[in-house]
């Protein structure tokens, strides 16, 4: 019989270390592998999930998966590391659990709910992949605290950027918790945030243009926004004058301004 951990730190830590040792696995720095051992973080993730068909991106050895499988309708795990997906498959014995070895950036998501402790090295790309997939209505994501702050950042702040604009236009966002580096082993250098994203707008041709507009304008984030737009976007000057305040720099523009510019491009 496979021994599963209890939802307390001592049990999680002991179980994780023993499982890694048993299977001869050393966490990969290249793949940003960190395994959760904080019971509060796991409980908070579970409290935000709904009874939906769910994808867990990067389930590792199955620590969260063990508890998550009992909270969702079905659970697909997409794990890049073949060593880890074999371990998770051997531990989580449930007909509603489907382990897949693959790259979520390539396979996509395709389910209403996403849960993930996002690997640091693919966080931005994975957020865009989730944003573009209209089958995703909710995402419960653990990521670097700095990235979480970027996602909810307000215009005019240092953290505000193109990722802030795109995600805020598509989702309602909430930082549900902040957790110290010791919440994982190996211990990362930075704290982590838990974010809840709930879709409020579909990704469509206009949002595709938002990606183009933000890429063009944020390349010169501190310059006067109207001047940058005049040089980088194929939009009539009179229209730009109507949409963009004359005194705003790029990083001071509200998400709705980028959306208005995108609508103009999409209509031409």
From TrEMBL:
GO molecular function: 16S rRNA (adenine(1518)-N(6)/adenine(1519)-N(6))-dimethyltransferase activity; RNA binding
Family annotation (InterPro entries): KsgA/Erm, rRNA_Ade_methylase_Trfase_N, rRNA_adenine_dimethylase, SAM-dependent_MTases_sf
Domain Ribosomal RNA adenine methylase transferase N-terminal: 38-201
E.C. number(s) listed in UniProt: 2.1.1.182
Coiled coil: none
Binding residues annotated for S-adenosyl-L-methionine, in chain numbering: 34, 36, 58, 79, 103, 117
Family label: Belongs to the class I-like SAM-binding methyltransferase superfamily. rRNA adenine N(6)-methyltransferase family.
Protein name (database record): Ribosomal RNA small subunit methyltransferase A
Originating organism: Thermosphaera aggregans
